[in-house]
Amino acid sequence: MSARIRSRRARLVPSMAGLAALSLLAVACAPAGGDSGGGSDGGGDDQGGATEFTFLTTVENPQIRDELTRLSENQCAAENEALPLVVDTIPQADVNQRVSVLASQDALPVMFVSPTSESKVGGDMYESGALLELEETLTDLGVWEDVLPAAASTVNAIYGDMVSLPFQYNIEGFWYNKQIFADNGLEVPTTWAEFTEAAAALDAAGVQPLTASGAQGWTITRYISTYLARANGVDALAQVTDGSASFTDPDYLIAAQELATLGEAGYFGQGIVSRDMDTVTAEFFGGTAAMMYNGSWVLSNVYDEEQNTIGVDNIGFFPFPEVEGGAGSIDDYPANTGTVTAVSASLYNDKVGAWLACIAENYGSSLLENQGAISGFVQNTEVDGVEPLVAEITERMVDAQDAVIWLEGPFDQRFGDAAGLSAGSLVDGGISPEDYMAQIQDAVDAAQ
Amino acid sequence: MTTLTQARPMAGPAGPSRPRRRPGGARRFFARLPVRLLVIVIVAVEILPMIWMLLSSFKTQNEFVTGSVWALPATWDFGNYIEAWVTGDFASNVRNSILATVPALFFLLLFGVAAGFALEVMVWKGRSTILLMFVAGIMIPGQMLLVPLFITYFNLGLTQTIWPLILTYIAMGLPLTVFMMAAYFRAIPREVFEAATIDGAGMIRSFWMIGLPMISNAILTIGLVQFFSIWNDLLVALTFVTNRDLATIQVGLLNFSGEYGAMQYGPLFAAICLNVFGTLAVFLFLSKKIMAGMASGALKG
Amino acid sequence: MRDVLGDRKAIVILLAPALAFYTLIKLVPILWSLGLTFFDGNVLRGYEPVGFDNFTRLVNDSVFWEATAFTLKYALVATVLQVAAGYLLAILYVFVLRKGSALLRTIVFFPVILPTVAVGVLFKRLFGIHPTPGPVNSIIEAFGGQSLDWFASGDTSFLVLILMDVWRSMGFFAVLLYAGLVDIPEEVIESARMDGAKGARLIRHIVLPLSLPVLLSAVVFAVNSTLKVFDSILAITNGGPGTETQPLTLYMYRTVFTYNEYGYGSTLALALTVIAFLVTIVIFRSARKDITADKAAR
C154: nearest CA in chain A? Predict the structure, then answer.
């Protein structure tokens, strides 16, 4: 290193220190809050309403943001002119933390994903008054008829109030491989006994009857909640919430035992604890597993030729079978409305109202036409060339009686982890049905 | 990545400990066989995953999930790479990663070395307390900082900028850097600095002219470690980046996961390969330059 | 001369930037979080003081003790294996391969630069059983064994996690320790050789004692990173099956960000910090002693 460079370096030191001090100063003196906060503060104007239609959604769900962007360019162009759509995304795993912090700083966007358990009546988000009540709002706007009644009642059943726009509406049940069923001379099972017999027959024929993912515990816990709804009625979980029943009661324990029996017989194949969702769909659509419990969003996989190698015509759907002598009906579908998409109560103004009305009127048909997916909004425009399976699912949605709530639905996040993280072990025998039910009942008790 | 070497000359090629060449080539070959096998095994254990990544980046979803781990892809087309580039918005992710990493790394090393010098070489009361305070920082789980920092950055209006990343990376990297730098300075005989002060050099000057060059190897090693921990950070980037336009490469990788737990493996691995092999290429190029610069510096100094 | 080495202005200029960043962005938020250990609530609901409730809860929380036991077991096993593997590699570099080791050093270092997502998927595939057996199970079958569902039990999952961590970081430790071994004066080793020390004896009686200081700093580093292991476990087992492989960091993260219990989460973080601190102090103490002894010997 030459002496010249050295001396230049020596002169650099004070300037470096100065630069450091400057950057600290810049941090300390940066404008507090205000517009540099950009999109996420909702761009509130002097009247407290929104100046931009800011929307915070999850990275993992491109469906809603894509469709809203499309609407902003077409049917809702006028509304977008008055209040431009601005989309921000966060990962699903971050929703709980980020949205709570934004709410505490009074910085929520106009429309946002909201943590499920906190958005229920009694939850922190709900009680903070940040969430706009949507039934009243949409009724005032004259567009309440554009929400599917079944979707509205699902939202109300889960959250106790209309806190979420039904951008998504899904029913769940068993998807099955018609070809495999025909080859083995099987009919669609309508009772739990027929279902287990069909599984046994498939297993004997060397076909893996079922597949589910231990990494995504919900694909397994749904068996328990739906079995309970069939056996003890749709209010089975509500009885646990109000304390009149316990998961450790014999008539609740049986749901976990039935599931463990399926696992013990090897119907789910090996390695369920770590199996991921992609393996599950690949197995089913590759024809190596005969049945898969899943939601109606799977339709997008059904019509994806690259994934679905067994052909659209070979795929069927049947509702979770009835339990003989049970209090529930096969017409009660497990249903959900996806992640909560709430509207900020404080940023609401006429321009936001105009946007909401436009969404309610157009979203249903636009989504079906452009993405082939079903939402909780009525399809106001006739969409041509709807695939038969999509039409069938839509029909089932309209005919659905009561909504069956998923196992984790009425409870808190601690319960969700207690149920979900051990679900795979319940199937492969790592935890006994008794211990499993005791573990989730403990989580219920701890929350009270 | 020859910079990893901290190269210091070992015994020269004519060193007496070196096994002498024997005429019996075959015997020598067999004598070296266990070592060769060992090296082959080590290399295989390290290289096979790289090959697996590359193969995976060309596979379709079905091939990846249901096919054998080492199967070759059915076709060698670049669909996944195009998908990664477009959906993942890879170019802007790379830009953001560079914008966050380079300034953070520069200031982290500068401040860390300076503090290490002040704490180890200079003599003053309370320096061991301050050093202990920095060392304690190594032990604190980073997850603890997230909420307070988010609220602070938010109120300062920084959340829609890249600043929270730079500032947090500097602060989070400091404890380890200061600790290691102090340790390296400890290894240098104090007489070196004492001699410099007799020469009349100010302490800032002797830091710049003696301290810094003497531990340039250490700076490089720590710099490398810090570079990869910043470049591969997900926790901080995930928490402080809301805007898609500001997403770093690691955050961008989340673009390939779906709402109900599905993952697009092909494009994901294409993006990972672009990241890993891209970094590797830039790195090899840069390390040559750095090594050359250091070598010339060492010769003249 | 003392005056120059104690030049206040120089100390301030050199130390101030680091100290300012560290204090503002690390210490203040930590103190903020630690203050929360006496509160219950979250950002949204607000906080109410609960005295020492969080600490009594901690003592009675079986999940906390399980997570602590797992964390300590993991840190111990991973540290020993990482540093041992790194040390053996360093010896291989310095005494066997000598100048030819540059390429191998680079190759073994490679996993450090892999994103955690990639490492997670890789190890799940390597040890997978379904729908096709992964390479590890294929090898077991080739030798006539029975395929194993590695992720179905806590013990085998632990094994996979340890293997992953050793694979991932041995290159890093090898480079760190290599630097220490290269520093050992050649004459020392030569004279030992003349005295008839060879192979394992040479390593044990000459090389090991001389490289003790750098070995111990590697141990401090390894312990502190393994005690805080987080994202790789999240990516591979997600703490499962159940919570059998859940380290303290993951339990803390879930408590704060999933369950919204900021106060209790901070208490867990404090517990982890105290553990890390105690472990480090113990190592430091012995390290200091050894280094001074070593210096005196020289």
Answer: A430
Lowest-confidence range among B40-49, B79-88, C148-157, C183-192?
C183-192
* Single-letter amino acid code for the residue at B37: L
C-alpha separations of A304 from A125, A311, A398 in Å: 38, 10, 25
Chain C contacts in chain A segment 312-371 (CB below 8 A): none
Tens-place pLDDT, residues A80-122? 999 999 998 888 888 888 898 899 888 899 999 999 888 999 8
Can you tell me the distance from the alpha carbon of A285 to that of B182, in angstroms, rounded to the nearest whole number?
59
Q: Which residue has the tokens 């060449």?
A: B21
Q: Three-state DSSP class for A208?
A: strand
Res B295 pLDDT > 80: no
Of chain A residues 207-266, which have a CB less than 8 A from chain B?
213, 215-216
The structure tokens 């669609």 sit at A188
Tell me which amino acid residue C86 is: G
Say if the Cβ atoms of C243 and A14 lie within 8 Å. Answer: no
Pairwise CA distance, residues C97 & C41, whole Å: 59
Q: What phi-psi label fits residue B189: left (phi over 0), alpha (psi between -120 and 50 degrees) or beta?
A: beta
Tokens representing C4 are 């120059």
Chain C hits for A118, CB-CB cut-off 8 Å, are 44, 260
Q: Is C127 exposed, middle or buried (0-12, 13-18, 19+ CB in 10 A)?
A: buried
Q: What phi, psi does B229 have (nearest 5°)?
A: -75, -30
Calpha distance B50→B56 (Å, rounded) = 10
Tell whether A420 is within 8 A of chain B (Cβ).
Answer: no
> Hey, are the CB atoms on A428 and C149 less than 8 Å from each other?
yes
Residue B208 distance to chain C (closest CA, Å) = 11
Residue pair C262/C253 in contact (Cβ under 8 Å)? The answer is no
B239:A59 CB<8 A = no
> What does C179-223 look like in DSSP terms, one character per residue?
HHHHTS-HHHHHHHHHTT--HHHHIIIIIHHHTHHHHHHHHHHHH
Q: Which residues of C touch A91 (CB under 8 A)?
A: none
Note the pLDDT of residue A186.
Answer: 95
* Preceding omega of C131 cis (within 30 degrees of 0): yes
What radius of gyration do chain C's Cα atoms show? Answer: 24
Which chain B residues have a beta carbon less than 8 Å from that of C102? 2, 5
Dist CA B265 CA C140 (whole Å): 27
**Burial of residue C169, with CB atoms counted within 10 A of its CB: 0-12 exposed, 13-18 middle, 19 or more buried:** buried
Subunit contact C131:A101, Cβ cutoff 8 A: no
Please, which chains are in contact with B (at least 3 CB pairs closer than 8 A)? A, C
- Give the C-alpha separation, B165 to A282, whole Å: 38
Chains with ≥3 Cβ pairs under 8 A against A? B, C
| CA–CA min distance B13, chain C (Å) | 9
Between B281 and A416, the more confident residue is: A416
